[in-house]
Amino acid sequence: NCSFGDGFERFAIGTINNITGCSPNGYGDFTNLNTDLEINNNISVTVRTGFDSQIFSVWIDYNDNSVFEANELVIEDAAVPIANVDVTANFNLPNDPGLLGSHLLRARMSYAPSDPSSADPCIDFIFGETEDYTVTLINEILAIGEQEFNASELLVLPLSERNYEISFNTQGNFDDLEYKIFNTLGQELFAGDMASSEKGYSTQVNMGSVTTGVYLVKVFEGQFSNVKRIIVK
């Protein structure tokens, strides 16, 4: 519940500067907003709330399994004591080429007197809000292959009921492009190779065996990856 002003009225990281009110049911899906972040750097996150006595936490889903694990918690219970005043917290991105690519970022804010920790990625808060974004981790000096991969477009399009086309539109040439699909528990449900297509690479997946819900599609080659969230109805 963020109807009293709890939660985020501003969330800013990199080139993302999202000014919002209370999201429906306390959850804002802003995964269409993406920013580049350089590994081996100190990253700033600026937030604002509409109610006093808040705390916030941030995760990056480094392994793209749709589960925000303890070792992916980058900011834990940073204090936002006063409403309508910007607060900045920082974290370090490690110098690890294995982290390169696009990943989900989750930010959660809670009212400290009723929910004394915001550092659980999934529990319901009495007062608070959750927002999801996308971040792309890059090297300071991009290799040509990484430039091409990050400039590509990942699309997941419904073809018919429970049938989807995964398209990776690119001008790059990638030898072994693969995909995986995870549920919200981080379980791998589908995997395979992407085939060359007119605009890059594509494949079709029948998801008739899964239940209604949210799933994460990951397309990757070596150390480069991109992710997209889909809702199966």
Describe the fold and architecture.
The chain is mainly beta. 3% of the residues lie in helices and 54% in strands. It is built from one helix and 17 strands. It has a five-stranded mixed sheet with strand order 3-9-8-5-6. Strand 14 (195-197) and strand 15 (200-206) form a beta hairpin. The longest helix has 7 residues, at 144-150.
Largest β sheet strand count, sense and barrel closure:
5 strands, mixed
> Structural class of the helix and strand makeup?
mainly beta
The average pLDDT score comes to: 89
Q: What topology, given as strand order, has the largest sheet?
A: 3-9-8-5-6
Whole-angstrom Rg: 18 Å
Annotation, overall tally of beta strands? 17
